[in-house]
Amino acid sequence: LMVQRALDEPYVAFRTTTELREGGALFLSASMPVRDADMFLNPSARNPAVHVASNRGASGIDGVVSSALGYAQGLARPVTLLIGDGAALHDLGALRCLRDSEQPVCVIVVNNGGCGIFSFLPIAQHKDVFPAFF
After folding, report:
1. What PANTHER family does the record point to (predicted)?
2. How much is the pLDDT for 44?
3. CA–CA gap between residue 130 and residue 124 (Å, rounded)
4. Which residues pair with 54 in a beta bridge?
């Protein structure tokens, strides 16, 4: 992937959806990745031949890598996973399963400083506690 500009979350979502090919599949993590893809999806990438899915766990970000592995297995095709750093940490054990997966899963981790969605919530106004806990 040749990049001619700085990487940020919207651009990663845009480029990820741009690079999907017919017959491809995309699994989106809850939190910022699913929102970024919804807002910044490349309009020319809207292709009914590309499967897109997401799920919502108990807190939204648990088990995402495992879910993407199951999605790839169920579709019997390769899957691209767009996931945030916080969600990736919540499912570290599943990364080991990638090696044994019958279907390839390409994992794109967006490092937004750990659960970047919290910067959009009211807690972000509390500068005395926000950096320490979020």
Report:
1. 2-SUCCINYL-5-ENOLPYRUVYL-6-HYDROXY-3-CYCLOHEXENE-1-CARBOXYLATE SYNTHASE, PROTEIN PHYLLO, CHLOROPLASTIC
2. 60
3. 6
4. 28
For β-strands 79-84 and 51-54, DSSP reports them as unpaired
69 inside domain: yes
Give this prediction's pTM. 0.77
Burial class (CB in 10 A: 0-12, 13-18, 19+), 68: buried
What does the pLDDT look like over 53-77, one tens digit per residue? 888 766 666 789 999 999 999 999 9
Closest CA to 90 of 70, 107, 72, 115: 115
Note the helical H segments in the chain.
9-19, 32-40, 64-75, 85-90, 92-98, 130-133
Query: Under DSSP, is residue 48 helix (H, G, I), strand (E, B) or coil?
Result: coil
Residue 29 within a domain = yes
Number of domains in the chain: 1
Is residue 3 one of the residues assigned to a domain?
A: no
Examine residue 1 and state whether it is found in any structural domain, yes or no.
no
User: Which CATH number belongs to the domain containing residue 127 in this structure?
Assistant: 3.40.50.970
CB atoms within 10 A of CB 97: 14
Q: Residue 74: which residues within 8 A CB-CB, separation 6 or more? A: none
The domain containing residue 51 runs over which residues? 9-133
For residue 106, the SS3 value is: strand
